[in-house]
Amino acid sequence: MSPLVTGSNDTEIQSDDDRERSRRLSLQGNTPPAEIEGYSIVRRLGTGAYGTVWLAREDRTGRMVAVKFYPHQRGLNWSMLSREVEKLAAVYTSHNIVRLLDVGWNAEPPYFVMEYVENGSLGNFLTRGHLSVDDSVRIVREICNALIDAHGAGVLHCDLKPDNVLLDGQMHARLCDFGQARMSHEQSPALGTLYYMAPEQADLDALPDAKWDVYAVGALFYHLLTGSPPHRTEATQRQLEAADTLDERLKIYQRIISSSGVPTGHRKLKGVDGRVADIVDRCLNAVPSQRFPNAQGIRDALDRRDRIKSLRPLLIMGMLAPILLMGAMIPIFTKAVNDNLQSTLDEITDRALESDALSARLQAAALDHELRDRLEELETILTDRELADALEAALDRNSDTLVGEFYQHAHDEKATPPRWLQLLDAAWAQCNAANKKYNRGKDASWFLTDRRGTQIWRREFSDLTLGQNFSYRDYFHGRGEDYPPDGIPENIAPLDKPNVCNAYKSTSTGMQTVALSVPVRSSKGEVIGVLARSVHLGALQERMGRLMKEPDADSVERVIALVEARDNTHYRLLDHPYLTEAVVAAAKESNKDAELFETLFIDESAVKAIQASQARDRSAEVRLKMYQDPIGRLSEQGTAVYQGIWLAAMAPVSDFGWLVVVQERREAALSPV
Predict the structure, then answer these.
(1) Considering the entire predicted model, what is its pTM?
(2) CA–CA separation, 98 vs 88, rounded Å?
(3) CATH architecture of structural domain 11-310
(4) What are the tens digits of pLDDT across the range 161-212?
(5) Closest CA relative to residue 357, chosen from 560, 110, 177
(6) Pair 648, 356: CB distance under 8 Å
(7) Phi, psi dihedral angles at 331 (to 5 degrees)
(8) In a 3-state reduction of DSSP, which class is residue 462?
(9) Closest CA to 666 of 349, 357, 355
C-alpha cells in the first residue's frame, strides 16, 4: 500500500447514554474486567460504547487472540452478546470475516474470543494517507467478499467503516464488529456512522436493507481513494455539531446527503479510471433503487472492470509460454493431484465440520440460556408474596369456579377481574415486555393448572384448552413422557421442580411446542398447581440461524435444525426450516400432521454415530461426514432441496435431550477441490 495524503477520524452516532457508557469505560484504565481461564490478558486494544477489546494469549498454544468484554448490566450485556454472537456464528465459515473462537456465556462480565488480526484497523492505516487505486480496488473486493458471505447467511452489517475492517499479516481485509448487525428478517433499526451511513438509514424507524451496506462500501471506497469520507467538510461538521438532539442530527445528515449529490473528488485523482469512478458513484447514489442491489453486484462490476483493463494484444503472447509449460507438466501434475486428493478432501471436510460444530455449540448454548432465562422468570414471578398468597387462596377453591371467573373476564372486559387474575395478567404482560426488550421470540402461551392438571387460566385465551385436564402432559408431571389421555397412571402428581418438557403437538394451534413449567407451592411448601409458558418450535428457528443460501442459488446450502432424543435410541426432528407454520397447518388439515412428525427420524447409521460419540462424552459435539436430512425423504413439494449427502455437526442443548444440528452440503463444502 502507498500512503500519500492525510487521513481522518470517523464520527459515530451516540446517544447521551452511549457517551456516558464510553466515559465510564475509559476510566477503567488498563485493568481487564475479569480474568479468563486458559488465557492471559496482555493489554487493552480498544474501547467502544458497549465494551472493551483486549489482546490475550491462549495459554495452551501461545496463540494471540482478541477478547471482547461486555461489562454492563447483566440482562443488557447478555442480550448484546447473544445478538453479536448469533451474527458471528452465522458467518463463521467466511475467511473474509474475523472468526469467533469461544464464548463466555456464564462469565461475569460475559465475553467472546476472536481471532487477533495483527495489523490493526484500516482506519488506523488510513491516518497515514490515502491508498493507490490498485490497493483500494483490492481491499474493496475483499470487503465485498465478506459482505457476500454475510448477506448469504442472512446478516446485514449496518455499520461498515474503516475502523470495522482489520488488516491481517498479508494486509488482506477482514470484516469485524457485528454489534450493529441485523438479520435480514429483523425489523429493528440500526444506526451506522456518519459519512458512511446511507441517508435512509439515518432514521430511527428505518428497516434494515442490504443497500445500506452498498452505500457504506461506496463511502469507504471513496475514503480509500481520496483520504476522506464523502460529504465531510468543515461546513457539514459545523451543521451536525450544532444539532441539539440525535433526531435533529439525523435529519441534517439526510439533508446534506440528499442535497449535495454524488461527490466528485475521486474523479479528479490521477489513476482513477472511469469504471472505478462509476462504481463509487453508483454506490453513493442517495436513491436506494439506483445503487447496486447488493455486494455481489459491486464485485461483479469490479470483475468486469478488471477484465476490460486486462485486454491487451500482448496478453496473447504472454499466455503462450505458460500454456506450453503447463502442457509439459500435465502428467506430473496429474500424478501429484491423485496422490494428494484424498488427504485434501479429508482436511477440507474436517475444517468444514469444525466450523459447523462451533456454530452448533454456539446455537445450543444460546438456546439453553434462553430456555433457562424463561424458566427463571417463572420462578421469580412466584416469589412475589402478593401473587403467591392470591394463587394459594384461589387454588384452594373449586376449579370450575376459577374457570368460570376467567371465562367471564375474557369475554367481558368491563368486568373487574379477581385479584389472582389481575396479578397473573400483570406478570404475563411484564414478561412479554422482557421478550421484546431482549429480542426473544414471543411465548406461544402462558397457562396455570391446578393440582389435578385442570387448566384454569391461559393467555392468550383459548376455548380449546380452558377447563381441560392435562395431567397426562409431561409439563404437568415432569416424568419425561406424555401419557395417553385415557391411560394416565393413578399416582400422577404435579412436578416438584422446574422442567423443560418433551415436545408435543399443541391442542390449540396444532404446532409442535415445548413448555417450560414450574411448581406453584403453598405457604407450607405443598405443590398446589403448575405455572407454565410455551414456545412454538418454529419460533426457535426464527431465533436460531435459519436456513442459509448462497447468493443467487436455487438450492439450500446450509441448514440449522433441532433434534429430540427419545430414550437415546430414536432421534426425531423437532424443528427444521421446512417445517413452517404453513406446512404444519396444511398437514393438519389433511390429518397427516402426526404422521409427518413420526416419519422424521434420523437414519440408523447417524444414530449409531451419535450414540458412539455420546458414550465417550455426552457434552461433546457429534460430527458426521455422511448425513441424510429426514426432510429429504418426504415426497411433498419443497423437500427435494434437502435430498443428498450433507456434512453435519450436532451439539447437545444442556440436559434437555435436544441436539442442535448444523448441516451443509457435502458437495458445496468440497467444491474447492
Answers:
(1) 0.59
(2) 8
(3) Orthogonal Bundle (1.10)
(4) 999 999 988 899 999 888 787 766 666 677 889 999 999 999 988 888 899 9
(5) 560
(6) yes
(7) -60, -45
(8) coil
(9) 349
Q: Identify whether the C-beta of residue 71 lies closer than 8 Å to the C-beta of residue 80.
A: no
CATH code linked to domain 384-540 = 3.30.450.20
Residue-level pLDDT at 413 = 74
Q: Would you say how long the chain is, in residues?
A: 673
In the chain, the amino acid numbered 284 is: L
Average pLDDT taken over every residue of the chain? 83
Q: What's 444's DSSP letter?
A: S
DSSP states along 484-534? PTT---TT----SS-EEPPPEE-TTT-SEEEEEEEEEE-TTS-EEEEEEEE
Which run of H or E residues covers position 647?
Answer: strand 646-652
Would you call 644 exposed, middle or buried from its count of C-beta atoms within 10 A (0-12, 13-18, 19+)? middle
Task: Count CB neighbours of 671 within 10 A.
Answer: 9
- Residue 304, pLDDT above cutoff 50: yes
The CATH number of domain 348-367+545-669 is 3.30.450: yes
- Residue 571 to residue 632: CA distance in whole angstroms: 16
List the domain boundaries for the chain.
11-310, 348-367+545-669, 384-540
Topology alike, domains 348-367+545-669 and 384-540: yes
Cell 414478561 belongs to residue: 431
pLDDT, residue 335, reads: 64
The Cα angle at residue 360 between residues 359 and 363, in degrees rounded to 5: 85
Position 136 scores a pLDDT of: 95
Handedness of CA 122, 123, 128, 133 (dihedral sign): positive
Measured distance CA(90)–CA(72) in Å, rounded: 25
% pLDDT > 70, the chain? 83
Distances (CA, A) of 122 to 65, 116, 136, 374, 481: 18, 14, 11, 41, 56
Instruction: Look at the alpha carbons of 584, 585, 590, 591 in this order and tell me if their dihedral is positive or negative.
Output: positive
What is the per-residue pLDDT for 326? 66
Contacts for 508 with CB less than 8 Å, ≥ 6 apart:
445, 462, 464, 465
Q: Yes or no: say if 278 and 210 are a contact pair by the CB < 8 Å rule.
A: no
At 252, which helix (H) or strand (E)?
helix 246-260
Measuring CA to CA, which residue among 401, 407, 404 is closest to residue 461?
A: 407
Whole-angstrom CA distances from 28 to 44, 46, 71, 114, 163 are: 10, 12, 11, 22, 22
Longest dimension (CA), the chain: 96
Return the residue matching grid coordinates 396444532: 510
